[in-house]
Structure formats: structure tokens, C-alpha cells
UniProtKB/TrEMBL annotation:
It holds the Pfam family ADH_N. This is NADP-dependent oxidoreductase. The keyword RNA-binding applies. Homotetramer. It comes from Streptomyces salyersiae. Keywords: Cytoplasm, NADP, Oxidoreductase, RNA-binding. Its EC number is 1.-.-.-. SMART domains: PKS_ER (SM00829).
Amino acid sequence: MKKVSFAEFGGPDVLRLTDAEEPHAGPGRIRIAVRAAGVNPVDWRIREGQVLGAHPVELPAGVGLDAAGVVDEVGEGVEGIEVGDHVFGEGSSTYAEFAVLSAWARMPEGLTYEEAAGYPSVVETALRIVREAGVRPGQTLLVSGASGGVGSAVLQIARDRGITVIGTAGAANQEYLRSLGALATTYGEGWAERVRQLGRVDAALDLAGSGVIRELVELTGDPGKVVSIADLDAPKLGVRFSGVAGSVPDALAEAAALIARGRLHIPVEKSYTLAEAAAAHIDSQAGHTRGRRVIVV
């Protein structure tokens, strides 16, 4: 089968499309014929060799955590899923023609594979950090870097829970944030004052790692009310860095329910082939994403 992998840590140029042995579903796992794989910032952070305890790497390594496709192997002990079912979920080395998933759910009706592949890690992360920020219905959550996949999910999950959201993003994505129910403003010089003019901030999330932790702490008045998924130095300022996933099956079930109720939709901004994985990483690292990027197999 075809698979994207890397034999050394480095830039996008270390990615190679190679011929590899097919993986197989062990106990408690399923294998899918991959139709699409989600492109996440964690993918290129792992490729660069950043220290991410939740994702230990042994070289050579595959790339990708999220995928959607058709079940073609069911491991021992797995119940409620059959060969031929259409699923989305999380596993390993998902930039490939076949991948093994450790967590999954049936795809909600009406979703394409490309759309479904963009949800698993994104929604798990969004649900986790909203919980860790401790924000409650009636309060206001500030989201720095709000237009990407996690930000798009956070805005919609918060709205569904009765939380007001202020989102920062580039000028081109202001209307997009408003379409998701957020109060929107641009980042850049003077951004913190623009946020203050929009209202009080009870908690804040740093999704972009753009060096805004000090301002987020000032706006909330409490480092314990700030959570980052992108700035590894955040703990130096007393801010939680959230990098270890919670229950992915629970997150997938909640995502499916929100999608079915029409309360969650994350658009696919751009699709790439397996051979274009390096370009997908370059674009992901550049930021300014609106929604998700996916690999189509």
C-alpha cells in the first residue's frame, strides 16, 4: 500500500510517499480503507521532533491521527461494528491507503469522507479545552486564533452551551467567525484593547501559539483561566498546556450528536493527495486556515 512516512525529524521535505506493508487490526481495533485523513498541527509538530509526550515516535514513522473510511477488518473483542461500515475516528499513520483505528464512530448521515476526516482530534481537543478552561453558560470565552478547525469547533460547542465567544483571527476571516456566532476582532497591534471593548473575558484559549499568553492572563485576571494547545512555554506563566487527549470515543459520540442536530459543521478549506502531504503541512504551519485541511486517498 501507499503510505506517507519520515525517517528523520525535520521540515516538510522529510516526508516521503512510500510502499509499505499493510497494517492489521489487533484486539480492540479496526482497520479501514482510508478515504480521507485529517491534517492537524500535531502532525507537523511530531514530524519536526517537538517533545509531545502523548505521541512518542519511533523512526521511521507514519503520519496522521484522524481518518474516515470503510471498515475492512474487525479485531478480536470489537462489537457493534462490521466490515463495510463507514466510520470516522482516530488511530495512527492515517496518511495511507489503510490504517488501524483505536477509536471510531459511524459517520453521521450527510457527511462526505473529506468532511468526516476533519472532526475526530479537532472535536476531542475542543471539548477538552472548553472543559479545562472552566467556562460556564452565561460567561464569555476568548479564543485566540479562532478560525481553524479547533477554533471552529470551540465556537460552535460554546454557542450550543450558552457561552458567549470572542474570537480573534485575520481580517479575511472576520465574517466567518461571526457566521459561527462569535464576536470577532483581528489580531495584531492593539488587539487586547479591541477585545476589552467587546466585553469582559472570563476564560481564554490560545490555539495559535502566537505569543499572546501574557495578554490572555491580563484579560482574564487569572492564569488558571487560560489554556493553550500551541505554546509549549505557557506553563512558565502558570498557564495550562493541554496536550493529552481525553476520551476520544466519547468525543466522537458527542460530535456525531452535534452534527446530527445541525449544531456543528466544520468546512473543508482545501484537500490534498497523499503525494501532496508536504504541501498540506506547509499550508497548515502557515496558519490562516478557515476550517479544515484534509488528505484525500
